[in-house]
Amino acid sequence: MKLILKWLLSAVALLCVAYLYSGVEVRSFGAALIAALLIGLCNAIVRPVLIVLTLPVTILTLGLFIFVINALMFWAASGIAGSGFVVHGFWAALIGSVLYSIISLVIESLTGRLLLGK
Fold it and tell me: By C-alpha distance, which of 25, 23, 42 is closest to 95?
């Protein structure tokens, strides 16, 4: 149940990103669900491998290269998702992934407090 709630809230966060930033387009809630699933899968499977492979560059840039990896995962998910979730270029992916992370963090902290009763 917790996983489904997190998936739904990730889709809502993606819709918020599309609403706030014109470089990211989400056509429907169904497309947001698919995109949130793909972003989660990319972050769970591909991102750890990329982080290990780019560790020297990440250390050299004091961790800032992680933003590039996050943007690439966001952009890759849009490429896999098709026309329902569109990211217009790398810079849009970078801004969109930062916004997505911030909004997801806010939503998760709010729902965590609601679910735990704090």
Answer: 23
φ/ψ of residue 83, rounded to 5? -80, -10
pLDDT digits (tens, 9 = 90+) for 83-118: 899 999 999 999 999 999 999 899 888 887 666 555
Cβ atoms of residues 14 and 100 within 8 Å: yes
Q: What is the three-class DSSP state of 1?
A: coil
Strands 24-26 and 85-87: antiparallel
- Reduced 3-state DSSP string for 63-93: CCHHHHHHHHHHHHHHHHHCCCEEECCHHHH
Structure tokens at 9: 């809230």
Structure tokens at 103: 């909004």
- Surface-to-core class of residue 109, CB atoms within 10 Å of its CB (0-12 exposed, 13-18 middle, 19+ buried): exposed
Residue 93 forms beta bridges with which residues? none
Report whether pLDDT(35) > 90.
yes
This prediction has a pTM of 0.87
In this prediction, residue 113 carries a pLDDT of 64
